[in-house]
Write a structure and sequence with these properties.
mainly alpha, membrane, cell membrane, 2 domains, single chain
């Protein structure tokens, strides 16, 4: 019996109370990190909010207009900044939360399982940031320009016109929804590759269901994205490309399972 087997048996034999104490320690570290990140982000909530509003400001400046956001309820701006702080706090504290989860889970894994799982843990935040960046730098400018095209000229129609008066809370809700939608969507290769790594699916299955995946990508985009074609296509196309990437990565990890299966 190897030292690794001894360690694994020791972890499994650990009393339930010790596991709960360890879990409590990891949760406290995660919660403490989030609280610190929350107050840090709340201090800079205004700066963060205007960073999120920068794509709208840029598009309106191109049209010769100034960005003007309003709130119609007394506590609306305050709670909007609280939501900004929560959003930013989760974003900043995620690495620590992931590390604490890894510290709690890793002792119960075999060495080969650790090597298999760790790359997925590292790829998760990278792909989420990549998806959020795509939304912020590419989708937002195109979508905002489309939405602003419905404004009318103040000089026309006898002085009557349609003008955007965006609310701070509604704009934040839309931005957070899109950032989360694109960020989560970009986790598709991680999920599918991990499923292939543990043997639930194979790259052949993914290739066989490609046509259904394309349809599912547009359905998911229609559910997650706002009801405009531009944003939906902007989410559906990356989903389809990520599915193709998942087929490749699933094929890469498939041979790694062969020695393990042959030993069984």
């Amino acid at each position: 019996m190897t030292d690794q087997d001894h360690t694994t048996m020791h972890d499994r034999a650990m009393p339930l109370l010790d596991h709960l104490i360890e879990l409590r320690r990891r949760l406290l570290w995660s919660l403490g990190t989030f609280v610190v990140a929350f107050f840090f982000c709340y201090h800079y909530a205004e700066t963060i909010y205007f960073f999120l509003a920068r794509p709208l400001e840029t598009v309106m400046a191109q049209k010769g207009e100034a960005l003007h956001l309003i709130y119609t309820a007394l506590p609306e701006a305050f709670f909007t900044y609280v939501r900004v702080a929560v959003f930013g706090g989760l974003f900043l504290s995620f690495p620590m939360i992931a590390v604490q989860a890894w510290i709690f889970i890793a002792p119960g894994l075999y060495r080969n399982e650790k090597r298999a799982f760790l790359p997925f843990l590292l790829a998760t935040p990278f792909l989420f940031i990549l998806g959020a960046a795509l939304a912020y730098f590419i989708i937002f400018p195109v979508a905002w320009k489309f939405f602003l095209s419905f404004q009318t000229n103040p000089a026309g129609y006898g002085g009557m016109h349609v003008e955007l008066q965006a609310k701070v809370s509604e704009y934040l809700s839309l931005v957070m929804k899109l950032v989360l939608a694109f960020g989560v969507a970009f986790e598709l290769p991680v999920v599918l590759t991990l499923l292939a790594r543990v043997g639930i699916i194979s790259y052949k299955d993914l290739r066989r269901f490609r046509r259904y995946a394309i349809v599912a990508a547009f359905v998911i985009a229609a559910i997650l994205a706002p009801p405009d074609v531009i944003t939906q296509i902007g989410l559906a196309v990356p989903l389809i490309l990520l599915y193709e990437v998942s087929i490749i990565t699933a094929r890469w990890v498939a041979p790694q399972r062969a020695p393990h299966l042959s030993e069984d």
